[in-house]
What we know:
Oligomer: single chain
Structural class: alpha/beta
Amino acid sequence: MSSRPVRRARRALAAPLALLVAPLVALVLTGCTALAPGGVVEQGAAAVDTTPLTELDVLDDPREWTGETVARTAETPVAPVADDPQPQLPVTVTDAQGTEVTVTDTSRILALDLYGTLSRTVFELGLGDRVVGRDTSSTFPEIADLPLVTANGHELTGEAVLELAPTVILTDTTLGPWDVLMQMRDAGIPVVVLDPHRSVETSGDLVRSVAEALGVPGEGVELAERTQAEVDDVVAQVAELAPQEKSDRLRVAFLYVRGQAGVYYLFGEGSGADSLVESVGAVDVASEIGWEGMRPVNDEGIVAAQPDVLLMMSKGLESAGGVDGLLERLPALAQTPAGENRRIVAMDDSQILAFGPETAAVLDALARALYAPGSLPSGSSSSGSEG
């Protein structure tokens, strides 16, 4: 591996801050269990770096790194904001679809969405012992032994849900088929549909909505404040790593791919990906060229965007045949710095756009991949070279 220039003067100035502001993965807030303040945590087959962001050897010019990088979050245990919260019931809420729902019993909760965010939120509120099942994306240790109610990826199974006799279901519109949820309502089970539109800025809103529906609004405020404090901490650290001039910042495009189906989308303004990119000190090129929401990729669009880095879901990249397959399927990428340098940052599908209580963990992992890829444990970076 070649040597990499680093901003040692900036790192020296940032070191005192690191002593006062712990990294996300070691952040100690009310009721939170901290990881070691630095080093590498073994996580199954993958090692995750927990060195504070401000202590990393960052690239002198983050645009010059070549090769694929995998962003991984350090696995942190659930840290409930309350040990035994007592829901104030009944509670009536108007959900994201405008439906008025009354919840009278929270003894058997199902919290289901594409990213596993809702279930994690319920656990962090202190109601994890009331959760009776999980979706495919809910894999944190505290929930992993509960029965699945999804099949074939993210398809809800009505029979599996009914067998668990839930007293309330929290979901959004990211799982289906929708008829299953209507079946649950017909069976008399309160179904609260939460807003599927998420971003860094709305993570606290999501937490509060979950808490309100479950009759623990006070715990929701506390968890939302904790989540925001964690995000603010990481964003402040990122400001020490990212170039100060916008013209020097990484230009990032979020590319959603399902290769077998021929699906290639560029996520732009209002998709949540823009918020993610901007929070790690980069420029969201899709928003810059006026792309809103998510739109199919075309050659003109991707070339006009001129991204330095492609941000992707891991399974999406895999479905395209890896970096080589992606460049073959989208040859226009070769006319961008990202394609020329094979600069792709991949992250687990269930994490990258999850937001909620894990927002700061995602930002922390992406910052490492963007600004200090050479500091990542072996196996997280495919080339490890700077031009």
